[in-house]
What does this fold into?
Amino acid sequence: MDEAQRHLPAAEVERQLLAALCAPALDRQTRAEILERLRAHVFADPDHDVIFQALAKMPHASAGQIRETLSARLTRLGFPDIDVNPIFELEPPSAEKIIALLRQLGP
It folds into this structure.
């Protein structure tokens, strides 16, 4: 990972971890670890916080279920204007990159 990747802005770290939570290839253990770490995280982007709250309520959903229901869940939470496409359009990070992103969140 190059130097620029090691010091991403907090909002970009959040976005990449949210993309990982929406990815079909994410294993349960990594998913649980991301959810646990983000629960304690103070989000730099308020939209990311709301997206995380919705994702945290469906910890065992498949990527297809997430893609189909996330916008509706955000609407039910009172946030119909949050655009989830930037999360879905991002290529999910690799397992190695997820570890590095989690380190950037801090303890």
Observations:
- The two ends are 21 Å apart (CA to CA).
- The mean pLDDT is 91.
- The chain has seven helices and no strands.
- Residues 14 and 48 are 7 Å apart (CA to CA).
